[in-house]
Amino acid sequence: MQFYTIGQAARLLGVSPDTARRWADAGKVATRRDESGRRLIDGRDLAAFSVEIAGTAGAAAEGEAPYTSARNAFPGIVTAVKLGDVAAQVEIQAGPHRLVSLLTREAVEELALEVGMEATARVKSTNVHIDRT
After folding, report:
1. For position 88, what pLDDT does the model report?
2. What are phi and psi of 14, to 5 degrees?
3. Residues 103 and 127 in one domain
4. 40-87 pLDDT, tens per residue?
5. Closest CA to 130 of 67, 88, 86
6. Is the pLDDT of residue 112 over 80?
7. Range of the domain at 81
8. End of a domain among 60, 87, 102?
9. Which of 6, 27, 76, 96 is the most exposed place for a label (fewest CB within 10 A)?
10. 3-state DSSP of the chain
11. Across residues 3-25, what is the average pLDDT?
12. Region of residue 71 (left: phi > 0; alpha: psi -120 to 50; beta: else)
């Protein structure tokens, strides 16, 4: 399972590290300490929390726009992976944005995508591509 530092979680949620620390201090998202004393958030917990705060005043109150580039890249966290026999659906929460990509099951397995891992959604027209980061 993947773990994220407070700074990494803040970037994925589209908020400042101070806001992420306050949420952790308030018990809104569970953390644990590594051997060097840094607070870490389990990827699955971060994914669930990102869905919980999406669309609320949480990320929007920060006044920060999520990172986008000319190529419309949305770095975020995988919040759902639904596999069919041939097709798959992957959801990414990138700050206040929820992106859904329909792709082949083979692509999801090749990227080893799972809930709680960091990934980037690339949007072109009506297509959403997923890059494992």
Report:
1. 96
2. 75, 30
3. yes
4. 999 999 999 998 888 664 444 444 444 444 468 888 999 999 999 999
5. 88
6. yes
7. 73-132
8. 60
9. 27
10. CCEEEHHHHHHHHCCCHHHHHHHHHCCCCCCEECCCCCEEEEHHHHHHHHHHHCCCHHHHCCCCCCCCCCCCEEEEEEEEEEECCCEEEEEEEECCEEEEEEEEHHHHHHHCCCCCCEEEEEEECCEEEEEEC
11. 91
12. alpha
- Asked if residue 39 is part of any domain, the answer here is yes
- Backbone dihedral angles phi then psi of residue 78, each to the nearest 5 degrees: -70, 125
Q: Which residue has the tokens 């992106």?
A: 99
Boundary-marking domain end, from 60, 83, 99: 60
Q: Give the C-alpha distances (Å, rounded to integers) separating 96 from 13, 28, 39, 58, 120.
A: 7, 17, 23, 9, 14
| Residue found by looking up tokens 């072109």 in the block | 124
**50 shares a domain with 8:** yes
